[in-house]
Amino acid sequence: MLASRRRFVGAVMAASALPFSARADANWPNRPIRVVASYAPGGGVDVPTRVVAEPMGRFLGQPLVVENRAGATGSIGAGAVAQAAPDGYTILSDASGQALNPALMPNLPFDYAKAFAPVGRLCTLPQVLVVLPKGPESLRALLNRAREVKGLTYASSGIASGPHLAGAVLSRRADLGLVHVAYRGSAPAMQDVLAGAVDMAFSTTPQAVPLIREGRLRALAVTTRERLPFLPDVPTIAEQGFEGFDVNDWVAVWAPAGTPDPVLVRLNAALNHALADPAIRDRLLNGLGVLPTGGSRQELAEFVAAQRVAMREVVRAENIRLE
C-alpha cells in the first residue's frame, strides 16, 4: 500500500516539475471538463468517478462534471466520447467493457483499440461469492453441493458483467455446470439472493459488503489474487484450489484519440494526485470497497491490451452472447 502511494506521489511530482507549456497548452483547461460515466448513477463506475472528480478538478483549476451515459455494457457512453472533439474537454470513465466489448460486439461503429487514448486506471472492483447464512459454510462445501445437485444457479448484475464472467470461469474450472441468472444490475440480483430465489451470487464488493457486514449474506470467497483489506477473513478463490484465479471489474479514464499529449499528461497527473490523497483513498477503499489503482498511461495501455486477449478467450470458451 505504501509503495503504491509513493508511486502515485512520484508521478504527480514528475508531471508538476515539467514547464507548464510542456504539461499542457497554456489555455487548457479554461472551462469545465465533461466526464462521461458509461454506467448508471450509483453504480461501480459512477460513484468512484464522482469521488475523484472533485480533487482532479482542483488540481486542474476547472471542475469535472460527471454525466451518465449508460447502456449496452458501456458502449453507448464510450461511443459518445469516441465521437467527441479530442480537445481534453470530454473524457470517459469506463469499466472492463473496454476489454470485453470488442469480443462481444464486433460490429460497433468505433474501434475500442483506436478510438481512445489512455489516461489512467482509477480502481479495481473486486467481486465476492455470497450465499445465504443458512447455505454452505465454505467454497469447498458449495463445490461439493454443486457436484451433487446439478444446475445450481448463480446471480449476476447482467450478461457479460464481471460477476457473470467470474461465475462462468469458476464453473468451467471446477466442472460444476452452474446456471447463470442475469439481472439488470446488482440491486435486483442481491434481492433475489436474499429471497432465496437463486442459490448464490457473484457481486462487486460495493453492493455485497454491507449485506455481509449486516449478517444477511455469507461470503465464501473473493475473486482477487490477494485477500481484501476490508474482508480479511474471506479467502480468495485462488487459495482454495484454483491457482491464478483473478477475475475482477475495473474502472479507467480515457480521452478521445488525438487528444494532445500535454493534456493527457496533466489528466494523468490529476488522477494520480487525487488517488494519492489519503482521504480519497480511504473513501474508495473502506467507504466503497474498491481498490484505488492509479499509475501511468502506458501501464493502462499494456493492462488493457492483455485484458482484451484474456476476455476474447473467456467469451469464446464460455460461448457468451448478448441477448
In short:
The chain has 13 helices and eleven strands. It has helices at residues 2-17, 20-23, 46-60, 75-82, 97-104, 112-115, 139-148, 162-174, 186-195, 205-213, 261-276, 278-288, 297-318, and strands at residues 33-37, 64-68, 90-94, 116-125, 127-131, 153-156, 179-182, 200-204, 218-222, 249-256, 291-292.
Sequence-ordered SSE layout with sheet pairings:
Elements (H helix, E strand, L loop, with lengths): L1 H16 L2 H4 L9 E5 L8 H15 L3 E5 L6 H8 L7 E5 L2 H8 L7 H4 E10 L1 E5 L7 H10 L4 E4 L5 H13 L4 E4 L3 H10 L4 E5 H9 L4 E5 L26 E8 L4 H16 L1 H11 L2 E2 L4 H22 L5
Helix pairs in contact: 1-11, 3-11, 3-12, 5-13
Tally of distinct domains: 2
CATH class identity of the largest domain: Alpha Beta
Q: Output the strand order for the largest sheet.
A: 2-1-3-10-4-11
Ends apart, CA distance between termini? 41 Å
Oligomer: single chain
CATH architecture term of the largest domain: 3-Layer(aba) Sandwich
The total count of helices amounts to 13
Describe the biggest sheet?
Answer: 6 strands, mixed
Uncertain spans:
1-6, 15-24
- Choose one word for the global shape: globular
